[in-house]
Every structure is written in C-alpha cells, then in structure tokens.
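The methods section describes the discrete structure representation at length, but only in general terms. What matters is that the chain and its backbone geometry are given together, residue for residue. Nothing conveys this as quickly as seeing an actual entry. For illustration, here is how one protein appears when written out as sequence plus structure tokens:
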Amino acid sequence: MNESRHARLHRATSETDITLALTLDGQGRSDVDSGIGFFDHMLTALAKHGGFDLELKAKGDLHIDGHHTVEDVGIVFGQAFRQAIGDKRGIERFGHALVPLDEALCEAVVDISGRPYLAWNVVFPREKIGTMDTELFEEFFRAFAMSAHIALHLTCKSGTNAHHIAESGFKAVARALKVAVSHDPRSAGAIPSTKGVL
C-alpha cells in the first residue's frame, strides 16, 4: 500500500503543460489554476468534498478552445489518482453518492476495479457555463476514469440550471470517491476482490 497516498505528476505536450499534486487523505485544500474559471470552481469542489488536497497548474492552448486543457487535466488527475491509491489493499473499493443542489440532483457510483469505464447520463440545458463548453465535462470524466482505471457512472436525475447540474455532478463524484478510497477496518489490508488482484 502507498502509505502516503500521494502523487505528483508533470505532463507536457505540444498542447498543454500540466503539473498536479494529489493527496487522497487530505483536508480538502486546493490551489487550482487551469485558465478556465468555471473548471477551477468545479475542481475546487471536487477536492473539498472528496477530502483530497489538490494542487494544479495547467497551461493550455485556450486560444483554440478548452478541450485539450480539460481532457489533459482529466488524464493527469486520473494518473495521479491511480498512483496515489497504490495496490488498493484495504480500501472500500465501491462508492455511491446522491448530491442535490437546489433543483439539481446527481448520482455517482464508483468502482475502483482496474477496468476503466464511464457511463454518462447528464444533459445540460445550455452549451456554455461562463467560458466553458458543457460538453467538456464528459470529456474530463472520461479521461479521468480511463486514466485512473475506475468504473464511473454519473447520472443527472433532475435539474434545469446548468451550473447546478455541473456542481451537483462534481460533488457527487467527490463523495463517491471519498467512500471508495476509504480504508475498510475489517479487511485486514486485503485486496477487495475475490480474484485477489485489481
């Protein structure tokens, strides 16, 4: 097991340059700068409600659009999550959360399975929130799930306000991840799988 449950990564391409540090057993502190204001707001909520400490500095080709930056942050965040979780001994593995924000209600279900998958059932009533394209939320969570090697289901059960839907979704994922990475005191450090490996 990675006792510190911490990872620091740097990834540079011709499109983005990203440095990210993640501590799973944190205090919900964050220092985030992606260059996209609303995305920063969502990542801050993810750290706060997941109990993670998150530092992020991303420079991307925002003169084109936000796609490369958002997707690549998802990749690096997923890689850091996978590294920090270590061999998965003693974790709960599964997490589930329903989180409301006024009229919006989102449900997130997580399995730290080693089998990457995203089931996305979220529809936004408008194409942008601030400067961020709402279609990029799916790209972020897909990149995260694929790189973290987790199965993630996110469903919006109700909502009419795009900001509320996005924030409810990020908070639901945060709460589900918080449960999934937590230690099961009855497991005696075992791998949470009948196969003995994840």
Notes: Residues 46 and 122 are 17 Å apart (CA to CA). Residues 162-181 form the longest helix (20 residues).
